[in-house]
Amino acid sequence: MITTLDHLAIGTPGLSGGWELFATFLGGTWAYGGDSPGYWWGQLTFASGPKIELLTPTGGPDAAFLERFLAARGAGPHHFNFLVPDIEAALARIRAAGIDPVGVNVANPSWKEAFLHPRDAHGIVIQVAEQAGSPASAPPRELPAPGPATRLDLIEHHVGDLDGAVRLFRDVLDGRLEAADDVSAELTWPGGKRIRLVREGGLPLGGALHHVRFTCVAGAFTAGDRARAGLLARQLGLTVELVG
């Protein structure tokens, strides 16, 4: 089974700051998105690396999960998504690792999904999904034109149990272990997708996303770019490292 890291989802009460950061400054281009019960979502893709997904609540009882998240934590990283070719095989592997998946829904042939609770996934929700076909949708009118291209070439996630996190991301989610020592480990998936796990104690739920790194494909970020991008990132509950 080949599992791939598809996107990092960020919950936010509004979209304008996310569009400005990830499109204007970081060159993200529209992938697809749309309305789901209780929330709207949209994904941007970069020169390489996983996509970024923005989630915002739209009201009603189905918005409760995202409204609770925002009320408790404010805007910030909500989940990792991993696409799998066979959801049943993925669920069997997850259960064999001693993890009980939640929110299992395999009724829709176009999108079958399940989730790992942050307590089982080292501080962040993990969504695994089997997707049929290649979805497409028109971009929102308010999405700005993309700026210069960048690569989303690293997500750094800090965890209390480094060995357990490596087992999850390597043995259950098919990450390729590229480097490891007593304090950190780096795993990759096809398409330039990389997660660095770093040991850190005392974190709520055993882990927390530390930062993401974007690298210019050509040229360099200006001091003004860095200042504005840093402000927008903080408003999204995110730390962004800009290289180049």
Give a short overview:
The protein has 5 helices and 14 strands. It is of the alpha/beta class. A hairpin with an 8-residue loop joins strand 7 (111-116) and strand 8.
Write structural notes for this entry.
- It is a single chain.
- This protein folds into two domains: 4-131, 2,3-Dihydroxybiphenyl 1,2-Dioxygenase, domain 1 (Roll), CATH 3.10.180.10; 150-243, 2,3-Dihydroxybiphenyl 1,2-Dioxygenase, domain 1 (Roll).
- It has five helices and 14 strands.
- It has helices at residues 16-25, 64-73, 87-96, 162-172, 223-235, and strands at 4-11, 29-36, 39-45, 51-57, 76-83, 102-105, 111-116, 125-131, 150-159, 176-180, 184-189, 193-199, 207-216, 240-243.
- Helix 1 packs antiparallel against helix 5 (223-235).
- The longest helix has 13 residues, at 223-235.
- It is globular and about 50 Å long.
- The termini are far apart.
